[in-house]
Amino acid sequence: MAAQPEGTPCWADAMFSDLEGAKSFYGDVLGWTFGEAQSEYGNYTQAYANGKAVAAVVPPMPGAEGQSAWCLYLASPDAAATAAKIRDNGGEVLMEPMQVGDFGSMLLARDPGGAVFGVWQAGVHEGFEAKAVPGAYAWAEVFTREPEKSDAFFPAVFPYKVQRVEDPEMKGMDFNIYNLGGDTVLGRMKMGEEFPPEVPAYVNVYFTVEDCDAAVAKATERGAVLRFGPMDSPFGRFAALSDPQGAAFSVIDMTTTGEMPKMSDVT
Q1: Is the peptide bond before 230 cis (omega within 30 degrees of 0)?
Q2: Prediction pTM value
Q3: Which end of the chain is more exposed for a tag (fewer CB within 10 A), N or C?
């Protein structure tokens, strides 16, 4: 599997103060199994769906204990060059490009609207070994109160073309998609008043499940909070949750798709 095209979502990880609790929860809800903790990399622990690497969990670094959150990484052929583009376009580099052994190089950044994301320059670790199968990454959306900032920033940093979703069913939602060539790789949703003011902009990561309602039942039984859904969409039946440690994520059953909405190009 070659390194992903620039701007492709290629990996996701999250820090959890209760690492064993996180492993137990996601193992139950998404069917993940876990590799050995890599002590030389802060006990970074990979998660697998049917033997394919799909994500990772890690305890916080000392002094960095904060709200647990999933971080989505976007592929880059040159992390240092991407860092410069992030700065040039009003973003903030939170963690400078860092070599992670021979696995690759990473950085963490924040877009001008406040959403945190990662960048991954692949070495021997090229990212997700599976996508869109049960337990694996499916999709992600930038949730932001300042959509015009995200819509200007991301296509300036990555080779995205932006399209607006024109769907009367979406009742006034401000929702755009970012395309790479012929592939839709990311969504951008304007946060409405249903989000309390203290909830910052964030990237919402979706994981694939066989049955959305069953996954929600299992997650809430294990202490997750249902934030939205389950509901049907053209892309599948999905629900938004917060896990027991407060990390937001969504689940989606992509076998229950509907008619695709109309799109219009955003110049």
Answers
A1: yes
A2: 0.94
A3: C
